Queue: 2 jobs
Job 1
Amino acid sequence: MEFSCPFLMEMVFSIPHHTCLGAAWKVANISEGSKVVIFGLGTVGLSVAQGAKMRGASQIIGVDMMQEKCEKAKAFGVTDFLNPKDTDEPIPQVINRLTGGGADYAFECIGDTGMVTTALQSCCDGWGLTVTLGVPKQKPEVTAHFGLLLNGRTLTGSLFGGWKPKSEIPSLVEMYLKKEIKLDDLITHTLPFKDINTAFDLMKNGTCLRCVIHMPEIEGFPMAGN
Ligand SMILES: NC(=O)c1ccc[n+]([C@@H]2O[C@H](COP(=O)([O-])OP(=O)(O)OC[C@H]3O[C@@H](n4cnc5c(N)ncnc54)[C@H](O)[C@@H]3O)[C@@H](O)[C@H]2O)c1
């Protein structure tokens, strides 16, 4: 890269952030004034929210089981936070009510194929588009009533956001350097290597978005970025 970007930010750019901006901008091509629902508000979901906000979405509903995600989500553009634990109503029904007929775009950012079905059900008839980003650890098959597709909804996926790394990533880094996109807030913790188990705990209990681990310097092998 011809310009100077902090090494840590290059790392964050390497996957989660550009993937999700790409999912919002290139894959879904979110249009101004549209209604968006995002399932899962980790780094992936928050970056999709940022992409949707920058595209001028009028409503961005974030769904997450962890109440702690609410505040950060609002900072990334989420307009309505929904915790499935707070309602007995099926989530697609809640989304349908909040959006007045279903979302124009739904993003699955958890890695749960059951949620892919929920996302598809939360879209509107006619043109509702579901983009699946999560990578499931179990049950890879997606099941859905054929009528959802027959009624004009589309299901697609996004891996790495559809960017051409060599020609397009530098322009994203430039946007970050000009403070047009928010990235620093995705790094919530910085720990030395000896505390790596704490980092895993933080990741598992959901208090952490991205944690940077500092490796001890070994003589003769200077760390990248130094
Ligand atoms: N497609 C790609 O290019 C790409 C790139 C990076 C990561 N991923 C995948 O995206 C997914 C998300 O990554 P992340 O780093 O944001 O993960 P994360 O664990 O930080 O975030 C997931 C969020 O989903 C929430 N969640 C879990 N189960 C839920 C449920 N049933 N209902 C509502 N919310 C629920 C969690 O509370 C958490 O906030 C992972 O599967 C990851 O492997 C895909």
Job 2
Amino acid sequence: MAFVGHVNGLVGGHGSHGNVPAGSSCQRQSVVRCTPRTSRTVYMTVSKDAVAVPTNTHAPAAVQPGESHLAHADAYKFEDFDQYVMNTYVRFKIAITKGAGCKLYDSTGKEYLDLVAGIATCTLGHGDARLAKTVQEVMSNVHHVSNLFYIPPQGELAKKLAQRSIADRVFFCNSGAEANEAAIKLTRKYFFAKPENDGKVPVIITANQSFHGRTLATVTATGQAKYQKNFTPLVQGFEYCNYNDVEGLKAVVEKLKNSSTHKLAGIMMEALQGEGGVVPATYPFLRTARNLCDDNDALLIFDEVQVGVGRTGSLWGYEQSGVLPDVFTVAKGLAGGVPIGAMLCREKCNVFKPGEHASTFGGNFLATSCGLTVFNALFEGNVLENVKQRGAQLKAGLLELQAKYPSVVEECRGMGLIQGVQLKSSAGFTSIDIVGKAIEKGVLFVPAGPSVLRMVPPLVISAAEIAQGLSTLDAVFAELSK
Ligand SMILES: Cc1ncc(COP(=O)(O)O)c(C=O)c1O
């Protein structure tokens, strides 16, 4: 497949939440010269029948004689997209048409280093031959049958996840929000399993600046008014405290203890707030949450949708804190970009009975087979070690940039391959401006709000690619702070 080529501009939309302000610099346009590339299809035998598996060779192919990519400059109809797709994101104006490892290519053929990975999702990068093979095999055989029947890869993935975590049971769904919905329902069911709670309102405490999803319950759990505005009435049964505020958390629990109508059912926290600005939880905060749950027979839920599956350098984010949850949720990276979500829990709160919770697609052959491929790849390829090393390299480089640009960088935070740069309020530009400039220079970053720049690359990123990302950021800082 040859790239059709042409023009583009800068992206808008900060990741999954699309809240880049209209009119920000991401809407500027730029024309680029492009290097044409093609992908090749190689044939390999994956079962008794030979099937074509598009394997990414990562090798750019030569321009065909007479082929000009700029000649196709208007081939991608951004206007059509904008006319027909619902306007829920502000998008950066590039159309991605190819991926290879940690590189993406737009419809002009321009190459980008991808430090976004579909927002912490493409664990193995793009065009991974193992995932391609899995998808090919599953789709050539059986990919969906419903949960009325046993689905072997679902059982196998659940077993692997349970064997490598605190969980005993797994419920599969399709996204992070759905996994959190499942956790919220499970918490309520666990609460009402105790007769003394009859007639009380179960309350789950979450943190301000958290992000748990866009469904009504998860947007209520999300402690950010901007996501809730215009969607009232919200769901009952949520209270908030400031993240990492031990006394604040204790105060909310104390308030609930004194209530005759409401009672603590659970505490739901991210081990590191991703969307909220790449803020790791402190040990005292999570320890306090654990103790309060123990004291009140409430469930401690960790939302690991963004940090689970190796991103922090350990398989689960909770391993970084040493505080263990009763329930945790994962999605994003679990199947490397194939939609999947999962809610995992200990046996003590394995309270759902048949019919109480379900998902048509949840745990189907396609998603769970891809989950297995990603999971196996994490261990076969020593990917967690790569996350630790590349994460340390990235952090060290960011700290050097902080020293070089003291008027720009306030703080560098993160764990493993989720790193954030907090900008000084006096920097004179936003994270969205940085993303825009970096796109011009061929590197993709993602904002976590206007004052934090986030890096969440594929977990297989190389040392040279981290170095490229850092030198581009250096150049962007230099240019923007002129
Ligand atoms: C911590 C966290 N929880 C939940 C979600 C929602 O996941 P999804 O967009 O798959 O519903 C996200 C998405 O960014 C997230 O970062």
